[in-house]
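so im writing up the methods section and need the DONS protein record in one place, dumping it here so i stop losing it
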Amino acid sequence: PGLSPGFKKPPALLRLKRKRPGRRSDPAATDEAAAAPAPRGPSAAARRRNPFSSLDNAPQRAAAAPQPPAAAPAGGDPSAAPFWQFLEPACEEKPPPRAEPAESSDIVALSKDLHSPLAVPEVPSSPRQEFPADWSIKTRVLFMSSQPFTWAEHLKAQEEAQGFAQHCRATETTLPQSVQEPRLCPELRCAFQQSLVYWLHPSLPWLPLFPRLGADRRIAGKACPWAQDEALQQVLMSDWSVSFTSLYNLLRARLCPYFYVCSAQFSVLFRAAGLAGSDVPTAAIAPTTRGLREAMRSEGIEFSLPLLEESRTRKQKSSEESLETETTDGLGGGSSVEDAGEPAPSDDDDDGSFSWLEEMGVQDEVKKPDTISIQLRKEKHEVQVDHRPESLVLVRGSNTFTLLNFLISCRSLVAVAGPQAGLPPTLLSPVAFRGGTMQTLKARSVSGRARVQGGFEDVFSLEVLGPVLPHALHALTLVLGPAQRGAFRALLSAHEPSAAFNARAAAPQEAARRDLSACGLHPKTLDQLSQCPTLGKSSIRLLEMKDYAYTWKA
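--- predicted struct ---
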């Protein structure tokens, strides 16, 4: 009824689309393609790729040969090989429609989600009774073992309350080396609950308060009544300043071992005297910018850039070694020193007078560089490290108190625009403080199956989510060792900007011990955190316990 000449009914349009794949071939092939019914089923999806899909979720070729199972080590012991090498979905031996429930294969997805690569690393280190202190904040930890983690589920109300009480009273729990029946051991379950506790300020349950760096997308769209209310912002900042000062006073009195200040621009780690091999209180800031460092200098705060200085020293040593082996006059060594961050010799003369131009009589013909350009050229090496791990700033001793006042009045500490506008920084602490709110890490156990030589075996995992602080990681290992009979592996996902906190905070010869027995940490955890950091700007990605000895990979 009066349709346009170009109008085609749906059946005709579908026939036209079926002819398109063969429009470049001969007419006979085209007619055959049009007459043949449209292919259906999974085989058609394998041949044609969805243009809106990414490379990760594109359909795989049906003819691809399945990967052979990973070979076991030469000794015949499958447990000696890296654990996640054998992780496979539990439904491989069954048809796809009869796959096992999703919960049984969650362990595979969890291990793939972690930032640590699934490529099999080499043996990370020789077995030791203790692993090094890791001052980075973990966002997720996945423990895996051949023993079940059912003992960590469904704690009784009395066990949960006892765990909270043990944390608040800093009660030291002594567990046997091996627990035969973890589900029937209330001391073990209470100690597990105790290890999950941390303290937070401010407490806004509807907002994710960690991490704060790069969190605009997760916070966007959430209710933020203070964004346009300056009076409310002042109240929040005043309350935050009281909590921040309370934490610092506890740190000075050695009643708080350390705490974190996490803002939208950078994070700060305050450590008490006696931790990280330093006999004075320290504060590490990462990442930083030239503007922040200049503001700290103007306030009289003395600081150092340990990672940058270490890199310069290492490059300078390598250049000196190359000079000794060279038979030339050492021109290559000079360029290495420049690459290490040292200013070029000509930089010192750039801001001088241009009298030599007048002597040549070309002072009016040559355009002189302005003062700003000269200054930027001289500071190019310092600007290049901005927002990188090498920009870590270390403040020591009484300068930490000056830093406290500087941060309270620092305008860049709180965002003035965006989803985090007016929101005070997040304070994270292992002990209670004024205005702090008790929080617990989220833990859940997942079961799965792992491929071993000759078939499959049951595998169990425990996932811990949240800001896993350094003391919490060590406390969890103290609990899991006896519960899992001295054998487990852990995949750790770190908040990358905080990995720079593993830089050395003191000279190796300093290493003075201070009495921190009243700081609320387990003595073994305190001994570990007192050691000098050895990880540099990296963090532990893999941690394994076997026969009650640790190996790790950073």
